[in-house]
Amino acid sequence: MTNSIEDIEDADCILIIGSNTFEQHPLIARRVVKAKDKGAKIIVIDPRKTMTAKQADLYLQIVPGTNVALINAMMHVIIKEGLIDEEFIKNRTKGFEELKKVVEKYTPEYASKICKVDKDLIVEAARVYGSAKRASILYCMGVTQFTHGVDNVKSCCNLALITGNIGKRGTGVNPLRGQNNVQGACDMGALPDVFPGYQKVNVAYEKFEEIWGVELNHEMGLTIPEMIKKAGKEIKFLYIMGENPMVSDPDIKHVEKALKSLDFLVVQDIFLTETAELADIVLPAACWAEKEGTFTNTERRVQLIRKAVNPPGEALEDWVIIKKLAEKLDYGDKFNYKSPKDIFEEIRKVTPQYAGITYERLGVDGIHWPCPNETHPGTPILHVEKFLTQDDLGRIFPIEYKNPAELPDDEYPFILTTGRIIFHYHTGTMTRRSKHMINEINDGFVEINPKDAKKLGIKNNDLVKVSSRRGGVAVKAKITENIKEGVVFMPFHFAETAANLLTNPAIDPYCKIPEFKVCAVKIEKL
Amino acid sequence: MKYLLVKSTDSEILKRAECGGAVTSLFKYLLDKKLVDGVLALKKGEDVYDGIPVFITSSDELPEVSGSLHCATINFGKIIGKYFADKKIAVPTKPCDAMAIKELAKLKQVNLDNIYMIGLNCGGTVSPITAMKMIKLFYEVNPKDVIKEEIDKGKFIIFLKDGTEKAIKIDELEERGFGRRKNCQRCEVMIPRMADIACGNWGAEKGWTFVEVCSEKGRKLIEDAEKEGYIKIKEPSKKAIEIREKIENVMIKMAKKFQKKHLEEEYPSLEEWQKYWNRCIKCYGCRDNCPLCFCVECKLEKDYMEKGKIPPNPIMFQGIRLSHVSPSCINCGQCEDACPMDIPLSYIFHRMQLRFRDTFGYIPGVDDSLPPLISELDK
Ligand code: SF4
Ligand code: SF4
Ligand code: SF4
After folding, report:
1. 10 Å Cβ neighbour count for A520?
2. In this model, does residue B377 exceed pLDDT 60?
3. A123, A79 Cβ separation under 8 angstroms
4. Is A367 inside any structural domain?
5. Which residues contact B361 (CB under 8 A, 6 or more apart)?
6. Would the CB atoms of B310 and A440 count as touching at under 8 Å?
7. Distance CA B203, CA B141 (A)
8. Both B206 and B348 in a single domain?
9. Cβ atoms of B330 and B291 closer than 8 Å
């Protein structure tokens, strides 16, 4: 997030796109509620009329995968009606003229045909966002999980940049991270192309060779979809930690084949997941309450966690497992840590954003990175005075709308979009072991619009078969007005009715995220 | 012997004590003489806004838990019912703690024979977030620099690292939407007479604790502790008793004013309630934190409730809890504190209770009987 969670309360307009904030980030929704109580206008863009959409002043029920067209049209209106922040564009950005040219053709009428959203609603949303003093954008996987995910994100940035909604309280472009420490994992370089602190492997490798005292591979690594593709071929051994691709990755049938073709599979997790069941060796790990360390949350806040109980049985903290492995590999001297604090001291040394953070300073509230030195208070809001570019200017990238990789046709006439529900967490590794959660709901379903259901002769709770080019799933139908006509929705938590048997492994060319949010399916009554 | 002035005989305790050190000395007596297994109390956590319930079993640990924490809004009722039902304990109780414990005792969730309730007069608590915000806004200091806080003579006083202190009238803070929790503003029970004794500084001479003896057990405790030399006792003057009464009456009047304001003048309309219920994410926080919701098999989790969907139907979800709990609602505010969606839950529960009280005369946490409907069911 460019901004902090707390300052959302100060927004006059909150544009929520591709995020079901109330179900997936309730404590961020709480800030939305507070802003709304103070008079902020809420705009929600989502193919599903989610609980979040129901809180909105303006709700735009979009066709999945058409975000770019919609945002371009909003910018078209904003530019035409003079709602841009000229000062900001002039002093702080670059690329506006090109953007202007590109969005020229994205009239509300034109976008309305692509997105299937009433053109007047687009105009109104543009006016509300464009005329707000402080407007904040919240987005989530409904923006990123597309073959043009990066384009979507850039579009959101464009919108914020041309209206000057960045660098102050109650504004910003705010991706909501789905896990407590996914930000921290990225910060630490758990990505194929960077070392800690987003230092590119092909650039910073010498620095890290010196610090770590080993020779390093300076070629970019592989993303998960690439690993799965190469499993059994170039890749013979895979070590998976805290990830359950047998439920969470697209095209599970293919994932299973890939994992089974490995020579050796090690899975480290707190429970025996669907993926761990395929492993040659399972390393039992400690859960959050059983270890010490830091988590860095979606607002870049580094937070200290303390152990409440010891890990059960043979389970160990992740860092202890890694240290022991290193010792077996004769690298014990390089992993000579006695505690998570020792590791944090190294993190500070190699990660410029964390340099000023110490365990002592973290206290209960934590510190927002970047925090370059020990007297720096941390940075809840990014880009206040300048952007992190060589010339300090924010880049506006004109974006053309592109179709998703797989569109409905005669054989597979519906768009399937996938997501989560409030009661379960990701692949259910944890929540599906909770009595209270499974009492609430423990089965998958497919949401179908009543009009589509009628055409197919499907009634509520009927068992239907949803199939795509990759596989089929028998699942209960849930007939609801909340889903757009022509679109169906499935939660991906449930391995028995795995939505990801159907999804398309096509990926974004830049960040390699799979297109979980759009694929073509057909539906038959069973 | 109904009203007493009590003073500790322990110079260490007196040094730390805010007024006479009676409470700490009584705990010391109970622990030393092994009359209880332990004392359940609050200890200061990371800062003054953080209170952690601890169970201490030796009087050496008493310094950790003495002193009040007005920003720790924990209620002990449920903790005792859940974790200490089979222990002999002593516990310092604000009126809402004592009322919760009393209600739970009627419902056989705790056994009063096992509990010494050392009541503390209470003029209200402040939620930690509100406290930090108002300290930043109106006291214009960094909330982290506060090392101690106090409520005295209608003022919220903070003591800073650098030795200075700052005070602002609670009235003023509340006019601006800060100050005590909303339920505390409406609370009419300042003196916990349902506890075994009620302690405080209202009417007390400097260096003494004013104690009202409220039960036979309380009387014996005071007598024995004096006999064993833990405390000194003297009679308060008539004037002291009058002052205390006057303070109490003024505060009750103020509470009634707030009841009128919150529960009538500013009470949310039906549409506003609809808007609130539409935000409910069915997290069960209100139920889990309500001291009176203790059922092993809660009706809210039964199959006739529509499952797997939010917001839940308010007539069923909030409605069932209202019908089960509101007759005995003690307006402790735990539900509202817990609600992640900022739904003003204790407004509706408190208002329903007051209606119930007006109709049936039942005062929860004070009356010895069960609420009329529950007693009907019992027969
Ligand atoms: S309903 Fe709320 S205010 Fe009433 S007793 Fe329960 S938690 Fe306290
Ligand atoms: S809502 Fe009713 S059934 Fe559920 S715990 Fe509370 S009192 Fe018991
Ligand atoms: S605490 Fe609030 S959000 Fe949670 S169940 Fe209760 S009313 Fe709903």
Report:
1. 20
2. no
3. no
4. yes
5. none
6. no
7. 32
8. no
9. yes
Regarding whether A11 and A159 lie in a shared domain, the answer is yes
- Closest-approach residue (CA) in chain A for B311: A51
Shortest Cα–Cα distance, A248 to chain B (Å): 21
3-state secondary structure of A320: helix
Can you tell me the distance from the alpha carbon of A292 to that of A337, in angstroms, rounded to the nearest whole number?
A: 13
**Total number of domains constituting chain B:** 3
CB atoms within 10 A of CB B294: 17
The span from the CA of A140 to the CA of A177, in Å, is 7
Asked which of B137, B162, B179 is the last residue of a domain, the reply is B179
Interface contact flag, B307 A436, Cβ < 8 Å: no
Is B376's pLDDT higher than 60? no
Sequence-ordered list of residues with C-beta below 8 angstroms from that of A423, at least 6 positions apart, any chain:
A431, A437, A440, A441, B308
What is the Cα–Cα distance from B344 to B273, expressed in whole angstroms?
A: 9
H or E stretch including A360? Answer: helix A359-362
Measured in Å, residue B335 CA sits from the centre of ligand 2 at 13
Angle between helix axes A119-131 and A67-80 (nearest 10 degrees) is: 60
B157/B167 Cα distance (integer angstroms): 4
Give the pair of three-digit tokens for residue B209. Answer: 């604790």
Residue closest to B173 by CA, chosen among B205, B196, B202, B151: B151
CA separation for the pair B126, A414 (Å, rounded): 54
Q: Structurally, how many domains does chain A consist of?
A: 4
The answer to whether the beta carbons of residues A14 and B269 sit under 8 Å apart is no
Instruction: Express each pLDDT in B191-237 by its tens digit.
Output: 999 999 999 999 898 899 999 999 999 999 999 999 999 999 999 99
At residue B148, φ and ψ (nearest 5 deg) are -160, 150
Please spell the DSSP secondary structure of A369-424, one letter per residue: SP--STT----SSS-SS--SSTTSPEEP--------SS---SSS-EEEEEE--TT-
Global pTM value: 0.92
- Same domain? For A171 and A182 the reply is no
pLDDT in tens, A383-424: 999 998 999 999 999 999 999 999 999 999 999 999 999 999
Q: Give the residue from B199, B223, B257 where a domain finishes.
A: B257
CA distances from A12 to A16, A88, A313 (A): 13, 19, 51
Q: Is B176 helix (H, G, I), strand (E, B) or coil?
A: coil
Residue B96 C-alpha, separation from nearest chain A C-alpha, in angstroms:
27
ipTM of the complex: 0.90
| Pocket-testing residue among B282, B299, B326, ligand 2, by greatest number of atoms within 8 A of Cβ | B299
> Do B234 and B346 belong to one domain?
no
**Could you identify the residue written with the tokens 């505010």?**
B333
Residue B46 in contact with partner chain A when CB distance is under 8 A: yes
Amino acid letter, residue B272: E
Q: Which residues pair with B158 in a beta bridge?
A: B149, B166
Gap from CA of B334 to ligand 3 centroid (Å) = 11
Note down the domain range covering B220: 3-125+183-257
Domain limits at A314?
178-218+288-374
Q: Of all protein residues, whose CA lies closest to atom 7 belonging to ligand 1?
A: B290
Number of the ligand closest to the Cα of B356: 1
